[in-house]
Design brief:
Protein name: 2-dehydropantoate 2-reductase
Shape: globular
Bound molecules: NADPH dihydro-nicotinamide-adenine-dinucleotide phosphate, ketopantoate
Family: Belongs to the ketopantoate reductase family.
Domain Ketopantoate reductase N-terminal: 3-147
Number of domains: 2
Helix content: 40-55%
Radius of gyration: 19 Å
Largest sheet: 8 strands, mixed
Strand order of the largest sheet: 5-2-1-6-7-8-11-12
Number of helices: 17
Domain Ketopantoate reductase C-terminal: 173-314
Order of helices and strands: EHEHEEEEHHEHEEEEHEHHHHHHHHHHH
Function: Catalyzes the NADPH-dependent reduction of ketopantoate into pantoic acid.
């Protein structure tokens, strides 16, 4: 199949290399040093899915109309990236590979003739240098849309992608997006203090902050009437129980996620943006929790403080101390 990948960064590069290895005709978009490196030497993937070296067509925009598109930009870049391709890809099935709650709706608004789906990935991939990606945690990805059962097209696209990398079609995708949003409460604290997810969760005080942001986000989801989808052993029943637990016990949740992540240090996608001097996706992660809380007539002080601190690190260009974070976040 001819597959176009918009945004060959950490996850886009991973999918591109694995889909090309599985025999698909892959074209990617990239920019600057990334584009030059991919044109010169292809995409080099290492880590959890083994080594892959994929020679793929690359440009600033896709040149040929594909059979399937994966949009793999950060949430804040999705509208610009999709708009630049609207004339070419409207009508082509699109999978938005993205954290946050908005990706599928953004694509559907900009591509009215396309059938748009979302993909939630628990893979941890580090874009180590232009054209080079290291997968630190391989994991199944979840594909779907809306609130109902997985439809035939989602099942078929998941089957096609699964020939390269494990993907399953899920029922109740919106609930699964919320569960992933809870997982993404792992992103902010490492990004603020400049440490790996594993080191943060190993620190009792920081783990408490991560657990507090997760519990706050689950409580907001419940107030918004969300039924959390099942991802990686986490589901509605466990998250509702977690929402009622005192933090001292609730800290087992980030701990369990850290154990699943394995031993290879994972920075998380938010910190990777900071290290490249790029704006982060935080307004679509903890920022989404703040907006959803407000829509439910609630406040989300932990996520609000973490969002502000990530923006401060964006402006400063360097991490803040653990003490500063602990002083600012109301836990
Ligand atoms: N990395 C990970 O481990 C995981 C990431 N995710 C999610 O997957 C999504 C992608 O993340 P990730 O792969 O880390 O992101 P990256 O920042 O590594 O890659 C994004 C890519 O999109 C490109 N891009 C940005 N703006 C545009 C634009 N306007 N037009 C075309 N291309 C553009 C970037 O190019 P440039 O570098 O030139 O800006 C970059 O190549 C995010 O929602 C993230 O939260 C989910 C699970 C794990
Ligand atoms: C699952 C996790 C935390 C993997 O790193 C992720 O989604 C991210 O980095 O954005």
């Amino acid at each position: 199949m001819r597959i176009g990948i918009i945004g060959a960064g950490a996850l886009g590069g991973t999918f591109a290399a694995l889909l090309a290895r599985a025999g698909h005709d892959v074209e990617v978009t990239a920019r600057g040093a990334g584009l030059a490196a991919i044109r010169e030497g292809g995409i080099r993937l290492s880590g959890g899915y083994g080594d892959a070296h994929a020679t793929v067509s690359a440009g600033e925009t896709l040149a040929a109309r594909p059979d399937l598109v994966l949009v793999c930009t950060k949430a804040q870049d999705a509208a610009t990236a999709i708009s630049a391709h609207a004339a070419l890809i409207d009508g082509v099935p699109v999978v938005v590979v993205q954290n946050g709650l908005d990706g599928v709706a953004t694509a559907a608004r900009l591509l009215p003739r396309s059938s748009c789906m979302g993909l939630l990935s628990i893979i941890a991939a580090n874009y180590t240098e232009p054209g080079t990606v290291r997968v630190t945690t391989p994991a199944t990805s979840y594909l779907g849309r809306g609130d109902g059962p997985a439809d035939a097209e989602c099942v078929e696209v998941a089957r096609v992608l699964s020939g390269a990398v494990p993907v399953v079609a899920v029922d109740g995708f919106r609930g699964a997006q919320w569960t992933k949003l809870i997982v993404n409460m792992l992103n902010a604290v490492p990004a603020i203090v400049g440490e790996s997810v594993q080191d943060v969760v190993d620190d009792r005080r920081l783990r408490r902050v991560v657990a507090a942001s997760m519990r706050e986000a689950v409580r907001v989801g419940i107030a918004r009437g969300i039924r959390f989808g099942s991802l990686q052993g986490l589901g509605d029943r466990r998250l509702r129980l977690f929402a009622r637990l005192p933090l001292a016990i609730g800290q087992v949740l980030p701990w369990a996620m850290r154990v699943r992540m394995g031993g290879v240090p994972n920075l998380g996608s938010t910190q990777q943006s900071l290290r490249r001097g790029q704006p982060t996706e935080i307004d679509f992660l903890n920022g989404a929790v703040v907006r959803e809380a407000s829509a439910a007539g609630l406040d989300a002080p932990v996520s609000r403080a973490l969002t502000a601190l990530v923006h401060e690190v964006e402006r400063r260009g360097e991490p803040l101390s653990r003490e500063r974070l602990l002083a600012d976040v109301p836990v």
